[in-house]
Amino acid sequence: MLDELRELYQEVILDHGRSPRNFRRLAEPARHAHGQNPMCGDTLDVYLKIGADGTIEDVAFEGKGCAISMASASLMTETLKGRQITEAERMFDAFHRLCTEESFDAATAGVDEDALERLQVLAGVRAFPVRVKCATLAWHTMKAAIEGGAAVTTE
Amino acid sequence: MLASTSRTAMNDEGRHSVSFDVHRVREDFPILKRRIRGRPLVYLDSAASAQKPKAVLDAMQVAQETIYANVHRGVHTLSQEATDAFEAAREKLRAFINAASADEIIFVRGATEGINLVAATYGRKFLSAGDEIILSELEHHSNIVPWQLLQAEKGIVIKVAPIDDDGNFLLPAFEELLSPRTRLVAVTHVSNALGTVTPVRAIIEAAHRAGAKVLLDGCQAVPHMAVDMQALDVDFYAFSGHKMYGPTGIGVLYGKKELLATMPPYQGGGEMISTVTFAKSTFKEPPHRFEAGTPAIVEAIGLGAAADYLTALGREAVRAHEQALLAYASQRLSALPGLQIVGRAAEKAAIVSFVMEGVHAHDIGTILDRAGIAVRAGHHCAQPLMERLGLAATARASFGLYNTMEDVDALADALKIVREIFA
User: Fold this and answer.
1) Nearest-angstrom CA–CA distance, B333 and B340
2) CATH number of the domain that B382 lies in?
3) 20 to 30 A Cα–Cα from B213, which one of B176, B177, B236, B303?
4) Number of folded domains in chain B?
């Protein structure tokens, strides 16, 4: 029992959950979307500052939630800063597969393998299907912000 | 079935000459033999939905195997027997809540539908713009949203009676909200999120003095304590079957006969009519006026069996057992460092909501699950209450008649693991 729990609640996750990085709001004209998981009441706001060439110049978030959702959002902001929005969208797909597919192979995902490797700490949610939504909430919200949507829900 | 179990139990109001043998009672619930991830199930989520005793499961199966047909329609034997069993269940529920008449028992899908029924019939007919209804900060969404729908349609005013930080219903503040425009007070009898037992007698008396009707959401009350419609003098009372060890898809709306008689139908269809022509239809008297379509026949019979089961155990014996669990759980949990119990009302049902410093309720729920312990984590369908308390979520352990002191110990031990992981 403890092994599986330690796999889920790895030190990196606990650390990012306790002290999330880029936990702030970006001033206009950043892109923004609000995400929520109605089942547990977690809410997140994701902000993106995107340059003329499509580079994510800054990304930040604010919100309230469990250790998994906070850590995932925090890690996401670190991962996406400086990348192209097209790559961010590809990473969204790769991350989703990482959280749900047992046989997921980072090498075949077509995105920066090292970046994905860092997100691997969240793969523990595979053993906890109801918690997948916690891990992916920030990514769904980020995608909505890029696409210009105002709100997203993972229910 | 239950009668075979051993309680020396006694009559309903039973003085406490009895020992409630919880280990014997647990034998009545087949699911309690389940193991979760290799560990014995510790089910502490009865406030969300309670497990079912064999008496209920058997009653439903026997009904389907021996007397099943549609009710109130056929001339044939089975239909008559099914109708008798269905109406006998109605009588059992009448006795269970001591209503004056079985005609005051309307079978609905659950408390949610019961409250919606009152809003859609009584509310639509008798409330108009500027009329006031009073809810409380403790309410479940099911006793908020139906009134907001009515508000959007009719322009009624919704007032909210406050609680204190411990979750006590504040009677004087409530009384100040009553006005000549107050038509209805709709409050919970027991808070699903905090366990608070509200002072319903005083609420009803004050509301009646002001000329208002009262609806109580009794979902969390009926599993834990005896309720008496005539003693309460309440106007409407709604509860769900599945929280009182009965099936899903069935519940009861109690309404005073004279009120029900003035109310228009809820849904139209078969079963609720006297005559139908294309020019005009006439409707049956209550309760059938409010039961359009083929009802949940088997579930109603199952709910009747659940009422019998609780009565045979002794409502007072169940209450005393659960109060002992509540006291022990409150003591064990408050002794844990960093844990804070949310909801410390003077009178509570066996529900313990709590938060842990630095750990989100959802993470608590996941870790407890790995220890075989089922609790609810979240806002408990009471978001305004969570906001009032300044919390996003709590973890909630809710006890039923089959829980044991060992279950409390298992919970406390597993919470130490939570603390270890998040240390």
Assistant:
1) 8
2) 3.90.1150.10
3) B303
4) 2
CB contact B417 to A (< 8 Å): yes
- Name the phi and psi angles at B108, rounded to 5: -130, 180
Closest-CA residue of B relative to A64 is B392
- Give Cα separations from B31 to A151, B36, B249, B348 (angstroms): 41, 11, 20, 27
CATH of the domain at B253: 3.40.640.10
Neighbouring residues of B358: CB distance < 8 A, sequence distance ≥ 6: A18, B338, B422
**Pairing relationship of beta strands B157-161 and B182-188 according to DSSP bridges:** unpaired
Taking residues B48-57, what's their average pLDDT? 98
Q: Is the overall model pTM greater than 0.90, yes or no?
A: yes
B304 shares its domain with B321: no
Chain B residues touching A130 at Cβ < 8 A: 366
Residue of B263, B381, B395, B414 with catalytic role = B381
In chain B, whose CA is at the least distance from the CA of A133? Answer: B362
Tokens matching residue B64: 């389907």
Q: Is A44 on the interface with B (CB under 8 A)?
A: no
Q: What's the ipTM?
A: 0.89
Question: Structural domain of residue B336, as residue ranges?
Answer: 2-53+314-421
How many CB contacts within 8 angstroms connect chain A with chain B? 55
Chain B nearest CA to A20, separation (Å): 13
Alpha helices, H only, B239-360: 257-260, 297-313, 315-334
User: Is a pLDDT exceeding 50 seen at residue B1?
Assistant: no
Query: pLDDT tens digits for A117-128?
Result: 999 999 999 989
- Alpha-helical regions (H) of B73-186: 77-96, 111-118, 124-126, 145-154, 171-177
Q: In CATH, which of 3.90.1010.10, 1.10.10.10, 3.30.70.420, 3.40.50.10310 is domain A2-153?
A: 3.90.1010.10
Q: How far is A48 from chain B (nearest CA, A)?
A: 25
Neighbours of B331 (CB within 10 A): 11
For the question of residue B381 being annotated catalytic, the response is yes
